[in-house]
Design goal:
The structure is a single chain. The chain is mainly α and 51 residues long. It has one domain. The chain is built from 1 helix and no strands. The termini are far apart.
Length: 51
């Protein structure tokens, strides 16, 4: 019984770590996308009045 509990705890820890890693990756990706979108918007802005 105790062995099952230990194995279960290890699995929970492994999945929690994987979930945290995936969350960090998603947040970093979303941040990079937002940054890229801003740069894209700035590059698409009409600059004919500056010439």
């Amino acid at each position: 019984m105790l062995r099952l509990l230990v194995i279960g705890t290890i699995w929970v820890a492994v999945f929690a770590a994987l979930f945290a890693l995936a969350s960090c990756a998603m947040i970093a990706f979303a941040y990079a996308m937002a940054k890229a979108a801003k740069v894209w918007n700035d590059s698409q802005r009409d600059t004919t009045h500056l010439k």
